[in-house]
Each structure stands twice: as C-alpha cells, then as structure tokens.
Amino acid sequence: MNWRAGMVKAAAHFAIRRDLTHARSLPALRSKLDRRAARAFRMAPFTATLTGTVGGVDGLWVSNRPDSGSVMLYFHGGFYILGRPECDAAMVSVLARKSGARVFLPRYRLAPEHPSPAAFEDALAAFDGLLEMGYAPHQIIIGGGAAGGGLGLALLAHLLNQGVQPAGAFAFSPWTDLTYSGASLVTNAAFEHMLPARRLTEIRAAILGRANAQGAADTRLSPLHASFPAPPPVQLYAAETEILRDDTLRMRNRLPDAEIRIVGDLPHLWPLFHNYLPEARETLADTAGFIRACLAQSSTGS
C-alpha cells in the first residue's frame, strides 16, 4: 500500500465515517458532505458542466471534448439519503474525458423525504428521457457508485426484462442487497474505512418508508435478487476490505459473464479520490476503456 492510500483511508475513517456514525441531523450531514466534496475533488481539465432536465428529472450534464454520439447515465452514491450529482461530477469528468461520452447525472429523489421506489422511478424516467432525445439503447451506457451502482443495476435488470439492451453497465462498490445477507457486512466491519455498518438498519428503514410492500428484497432496490436476461457487458469493482464487497461478488450468480474486479485495501468508492490515489486513476482508466469497448461493440452490432 502506498502512502497516499494510507492518507486517504485515514481521512475517510476519521472524517466521513465519523460523520456518518455520529450524525443526528440529516440536512446538516448532507450539507457537510457536499462542502467536503466541493473542496476535495477537482474536475479534469477542459470539463464543461451544465444543469439540465431529462425525462422530467433534473440533473447535471458533464462533458469533456466528447468524440462520439454516445451518452453515459451515471447515478451518484449516498445510501439513497445523501449525495447529489455535483459530488460525483469531478470523478465522472475523468470518465467523460477518457471515454469520449457525454454524461448525465440525474438528481434523483432522496429518502426519507421520498422513499423507495422514488429513486428507481427517476432512474427509469431519465433513461426514457434519453430515448426521447434521440439516443438509441446501444448508445447508452449505465453507471453508478455505491447506492447509485445498485440503482444502475436495478435499472439494467428492468430494461432487460422489457427487452431493452443498453450498450453496457458498470458500477463501483455497488450496494445490491438491502436484505443484508452478505457475510462481508460482518467480516469486514472492523476494516471498513468509510461506512458504519451499525447504522445500516436505520438507513434501510428510512429508504423503505411505510409504503414499500416488497421491502428490502424489492428488485428496484436489491438487484442481487433480480434476473438479467441477455445482458450486455457488465463491469463491477469493489474493495477487498469494504463491507459491501459481497454485494459485488455475489452478482456473479446473476451475471455469470460480468467482469468483476476486487482490489485491495482501499476505501469504499475509492475512484472518487482520483486526485490523490494512483489506484483510483487506474480504476477510472480501466473503466473508461471498458466503456469505449462497450460502445464500439454495440455500435458494430446495431
């Protein structure tokens, strides 16, 4: 492990994890994490951002000298209760620059103000909105991180069951199982640098609210329980020591041909720290190559 990784892990543990562990006010926590993201993460050079609305869902367009007619639909993380497109925009700007695709990050509704399936409904509306704008499914790649990674996979499962196949999908540290049946939630609890496992039950209750009859196994929240007929290429990343590791590993049961990559002792959603971590930059470069390959293959086969 290099010294930069050690510093980032320490910062994640003593800042982000501490805030998540001891937070009592959700609005204050949201504001604090937003401010930290604005200070810590820097856009790739030549990045352009523009607010916009797709399919009735507000969001943020990110582009960096796009060289194709393709688009990436990327969902930010934050347990479905935190985060916003601006928090992930710097990381996504790197993917935009290296992949040549424009990116739309939806400002999907957050719980507890908007319990599940509000986020999924916004994700689907944004995808449909891209189709209305003239993009074909083979020109769209779906991505996300943490809860946003799970949301992207849930959207992918829904689309495939409707006979719609995007160009591909990728996710960093995806949250795929809100039934909490993965062993790493327990075995990695002491090693996790960012997420406090002891608050997950409380967070899930906020996400579900009172109206979700299917509960935690709802495939709109837990794509680990979904089916993926005739999937496109899928790439999933997770860290060996994070509590959500098994949420990624067990997706092999649903997506046997997926490219699953487990890295070493890094923080949850480490690509966010691309300004500091060589490992983060390597992951983003690899993912951008995956995106380009998906779009090229899909375009050839269309």
From TrEMBL:
UniProt keyword terms in alphabetical order: Hydrolase
Record-annotated Alpha/beta hydrolase fold-3 domain positions: 72-258
SUPFAM superfamilies: alpha/beta-Hydrolases
GO molecular function: hydrolase activity
Coiled coil regions in record: none
Keyword Hydrolase: yes
Name of the protein in question: Alpha/beta hydrolase fold-3 domain-containing protein
Organism the protein comes from: Pararhodobacter oceanensis
Taxonomic lineage of the native organism: Bacteria, Pseudomonadati, Pseudomonadota, Alphaproteobacteria, Rhodobacterales
